[in-house]
Amino acid sequence: MIYHSEKAIFIKIAERLCDDILAGLHQEGDRIPSIRELAAEYEVNTNTVLRAFDILQRDDILLQQRGIGMLVAKGAKRKIRAARKKEFLTKELPDFFRRLDLLDLDIEDVVAAWKEYKK
Asked: In 10 A of CB 70, how many CB atoms?
C-alpha cells in the first residue's frame, strides 16, 4: 500500500477492504483477516486497522461475530457501490466535465476511449 498521500492511512485501509469486496475477494458472510493480520500485512499499527474497521462497522460493511471475527455484512457490496457511485457523480464527474471542456473534448471522444478500454 502506498502511504504518501493526503488521505489518512486508516481511510486507505478501509477503501482497500471495500475494493476487495467489490472485486469479489471477500463475499457476504466471509471472515476477513484479523486486525493483527492486516496490521502485519500493511505494516501499520493495530490501532490504525482498528480505526478502519470502526468506519466499516459504522457503515454496515463489516460486522463483528463473537468468537469468529470480522465478517462482510449482508448487502455490503451494494452499499459500497451505491456510496461510491454517489461520490463519483457528485465529486469526480463535475471535475471530469470541467476538464473535458478545458481540453475541448466532447462525449464522442470519451465514448471512443471507453470502448477501447473495454476491449
From this structure: 21
Q: Are 51 and 10 in contact, with CB atoms under 8 Å apart?
A: yes
Identify the CA nearest to 32 among candidates 76, 84, 78, 2.
76
Three-state SS for 8-72 is: CHHHHHHHHHHHHHHCCCCCCCCECCCHHHHHHHHCCCHHHHHHHHHHHHHCCCEEEECCCEEEE
pLDDT digit string (tens) for 48-71? 999 999 999 999 999 999 999 999
Opening angle at CA 74, ends 70 and 79, nearest 5:
100
Type of residue at 13 = I
DSSP of 73-92: PTTHHHHHHHHHHHHIIIII
Which distant-in-sequence residues (6+ apart) come within 8 Å of 81 by Cβ?
Answer: 22
Q: Which residues contact 30 (CB under 8 A, 6 or more apart)?
A: 71, 72
Parts of the chain with a pLDDT under 70:
1-5
Question: C-alpha grid cell for residue 111?
Answer: 465514448
